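ugh ok fine here u go
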Amino acid sequence: METASAAGAPMLAPESALADATRHALAEGAVQHPIDGVVSCACCGRFPLVGEQVTRHVNRKGREWACESCEGSGRGARLGAITDSDRVRSLGGAANVRRAA
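structure:
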C-alpha cells in the first residue's frame, strides 16, 4: 500500500481492516443489511453477489441467510421461519444496487 502523497493527507485503511470491522459489526448485530463477502448462504455455503436477493431465517441456531437459488429450490425451507429478505450490499456503499427510476 502506498503512503499519502500530500503532507497531512489521511491514510486509507487496508481492505482487510474494513472487512474485519464489518464482520465485527455483524457479530454485534449493529449491521442490519447483508454485506458482500460477509454473509454466506447457510444451505450451499456460497457468498451471494452484490444485488442478489437473500432471505433471513430464524431457527434454534439463530439467524441464517439463504441465497436466491436455494430459496427458489426449496432448500431454504429447512432453515426455519422466514423473518425478512433483502439485497446484498457492497462494503463500499457506493456500489450498492439501486432501482432505476
